[in-house]
Each structure stands twice: as C-alpha cells, then as structure tokens.
Design a protein that fits this description.
single chain; mainly alpha; two-stranded antiparallel sheet; ZNF706/At2g23090_sf; cytoplasm; SERF-like_N
C-alpha cells in the first residue's frame, strides 16, 4: 500500500513541530503548577474560616453575627427597633 503525498507531508510536519510543542507544553504545565501552588491555602474552606473569625459580635436577639460594633448597632437599630439597645452599644458612634 502506497502512502498518499498529503499523508507524508502531514506526518513530516507533525514530527518537525513536536519539539517546539513539547517545550510549550512543559512551560504551560510549569505555569499551571506554579499557579496551583500559589492558590494553595486560598481555598473555599480557608476563606470560610477567615470570614468566620472576622464575625466577632453576635446579636443578642437574633444571634446573627457582625464584624464590628458599628455594624452591630446599625443592625440592632434597623432590625430590632422595639428592643432596648444593649449596654455595649450605647457608647458606639
């Protein structure tokens, strides 16, 4: 069986370009590995843990969590207007 001319050209072209493709593939794999290594420790569970640590104040009425006293006071005034303001929020501006 004889090979057709376009098949010979196609095979020759692939073998000639493979060295360059191999280098490009290796560089791309290195970049991907470096990116994955850099993102390690920045996963969703780590972000959730950090966010949970930031929520320090807890509402006395509804138990929702807030990051700072100013937000807590705003929450309390808006969501629980009929209740008395807790003592720790009376001096917050």
């Amino acid at each position: 069986m004889r090979a057709r001319p376009y098949q010979l050209f196609s095979n020759a072209k692939r073998t000639m370009a493979r060295g360059h493709q191999k280098i490009q593939s290796q560089q791309k794999a290195q970049e991907k590995a470096a990116k994955m290594k850099k993102q390690q420790g920045h996963g969703l569970s780590d972000q959730m843990k950090a966010a949970q640590k930031a929520l320090v104040f807890s509402c006395a009425v509804c138990k929702s969590q807030m990051p700072d006293p100013k937000t807590y006071k705003q929450h309390f005034e808006n969501k629980h207007p009929k209740n008395d303001l807790p003592a720790e929020l009376k001096d917050v501006v």
